[in-house]
Amino acid sequence: MLVFILFTIINSKQVSFLRHGIRSPNDYNDQDKEIWGDYPQGYLTQKGFDQVKLMATNNFTIHDENGYCNYESFNMISSVKPRVIHSVIAFIQGLCPQNYNEILVQYFMDYYKQYSTDTQNFDKIINSNFSDPFKLNFETFKINNDFMFHGHKSEQCPLIDVLDDAIYSSAEYEEINKQVRQHKQFKNTFKLYKQCNRNSNVTEETITITQLKKLYSNILCNEAEGLYDYNLNTEQIDFLMNIFKFQYFEIDYSQPLQHQSTLSYILKWLFQEFFSEVEESFFYGHDDNQYALLSVITKEQSYVKFAGRLQFKITNDEVNVFLDDRLLITNFCREGVNCKISDAIRYLNKYVNPNIERDCQLII
Ligand SMILES: *[C@@H]1O[C@H](CO)[C@@H](O)[C@H](O)[C@H]1NC(C)=O
Ligand SMILES: *[C@@H]1O[C@H](CO)[C@@H](O)[C@H](O)[C@H]1NC(C)=O
Ligand SMILES: *[C@@H]1O[C@H](CO)[C@@H](O)[C@H](O)[C@H]1NC(C)=O
Questions:
Q1: Does residue 54's CB lie within 6 angstroms of at least one atom of ligand 1?
Q2: What is the pLDDT of residue 310?
């Protein structure tokens, strides 16, 4: 019996990296200000909440036949940004339809409480029964030195700023911008940029891919929320999507320090979860976390959707990686699929820097 139980534990498990649902743009341009009014920036929407809840209902079954979850059956860590906390609430509501309140109260006590900066507000949250989460205030949580969810930010890693300055003033970056400005889809895309940023003094000669990437990021929010139809043609979508991916895979996650800074903590957690006793582990975070992982796992460049899932599925001693149910060809072993866990760890361990805090500091 014991042998059987141990076997089932090791036999199959999965570690899921999850992105929050549909949100408002992080940084409103002139047009976004009109569309969103006083809705907070970078905030989950009701539509995003429903999306995450449905994703949980459709993709995960950890509850029993009556809809009750056992708190001990999963591990979860999560970012403390309000859009992620809202998504965690939606996720648990979908995951544990009958006892989500009990599960959430326990999770808030075990996990979020240590990051709370306001006891009164925290008590209000855990006594709320989570039936109207948009009435709650989640701005009162803070993780210091947050390498797990925001390792890419200069707050954690000051040297990233120095690196960015070098990239953005390089001849290569200028060359890419020149090429983009010669593309057939550039002129109408520049017009679109001006339409959304009326007060900007940027010109056709000075606009950069980084500015176009930001524009597309906001467009993706507005379209997902159904607030505005930009009527982009297929070629223009491809043009913008290629810029979007270029910014992530060739700029934000292209240098060793960027990989180490974003991935050292995440990978240490991942390895630990490979060998944990639960069958389900959840990392609730941001698209940045998934882009950082994707940039080293596979050669493919993919878009990380709202409520998107990057999942490591383990069967016996082999691992496969899926992005929204699509099997990825990994760099872990020659075949790219069914790689040994030990090969995956050996490969990924290159991106773990045990002294990342020290190596991120400027030494003057
Ligand atoms: C996961 O959820 C999404 C969104 O709800 C759904 O479209 C998809 O089919 C689900 N995948 C599986 C394997 O059930
Ligand atoms: C949750 O609390 C609200 C307001 O306090 C109340 O109206 C609602 O009935 C409660 N829901 C449940 C499921 O207890
Ligand atoms: C554009 O305007 C900003 C202030 O809004 C100013 O700092 C910048 O120098 C201007 N750029 C050009 C190219 O005129």
A1: yes
A2: 98
Coil/strand/helix, residue 141: strand
Which listed ligand is nearest to 21 at the C-alpha? 1
Q: Name residues whose C-beta falls within 8 Å of residue 238's C-beta, 6 or more positions apart in sequence.
A: 185
Quote the radius of gyration of the chain (alpha carbons, Å): 21
In this structure, what token pair is assigned to residue 171? 């001849």
Question: What is the model's pTM?
Answer: 0.94
**Ligand closest in space to the Cα of 57:** 1
Q: Which residue has tokens 């820097």?
A: 353
Instruction: Establish how many alpha carbons lie within 13 A of residue 179's alpha carbon, considering only the half-sphere containing its beta carbon.
Output: 10
5 occurs within a structural domain? no
Has residue 30 been placed in a domain?
A: no
Protein residue with least CA distance to atom 4, ligand 1: 55
What's the confidence (pLDDT) of residue 10?
54
Q: Which regions of the chain are under pLDDT 70?
A: 1-10, 364
Structural domains counted in the chain = 1
Structure tokens, 44: 């989950």
Give a yes or no: residue 191 inside a domain: yes
Strands 318-323 and 309-315: antiparallel
- Cα(288) to centroid of ligand 3, in Å? 29
Quote the domain boundaries for residue 196. Answer: 159-252
**217 within a domain of the structure (yes/no):** yes
- For the CA of 131, the closest atom of ligand 2 is 1
State the alpha helices, DSSP H only, in the chain: 2-11, 30-36, 46-59, 82-95, 100-110, 119-126, 147-150, 159-168, 171-181, 186-196, 209-225, 234-245, 256-274, 287-297, 341-348, 356-359
Nearest atom within ligand 2 for CA of residue 101: 13
For 286: left if phi > 0, alpha if psi spans -120 to 50, otherwise beta; the answer is: beta
**Ligand 2 surroundings by CB, under 6 angstroms:** 129, 131
Alpha helices in 111-255 (DSSP H): 119-126, 147-150, 159-168, 171-181, 186-196, 209-225, 234-245
Residue type, 289: N
326 in contact with ligand 1, CB cutoff 6 A: no
Q: Which pLDDT belongs to residue 9?
A: 47
